[in-house]
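Appendix B, Record 12. Input sequence as logged:
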Amino acid sequence: MARERQADALIDEQKAHDYAITHGMDAVSIPEYLVILLKQGILTVTQTVAVFQQLVRLGRPPQPFIDWARSQLQAEGGQL
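Logged structural output:
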């Protein structure tokens, strides 16, 4: 559907995310999307960190997505 609509795909599963990327689609995980929202000024650092911590507690996103987002949040001043 993302390809048909020429839109980004929100994919939070590693294999599906990798598949989408290798097939020329723009795939974004939920942790990545949080960072995008932060950098666009839609969320504050405090809001982003709160949602990120909920994701970590739930254990939903794969670790590479978590690790990348954690480093980005810390670079933006987020205390994790």
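The helical segments are 2-5, 14-22, 30-39, 45-58, 63-75.
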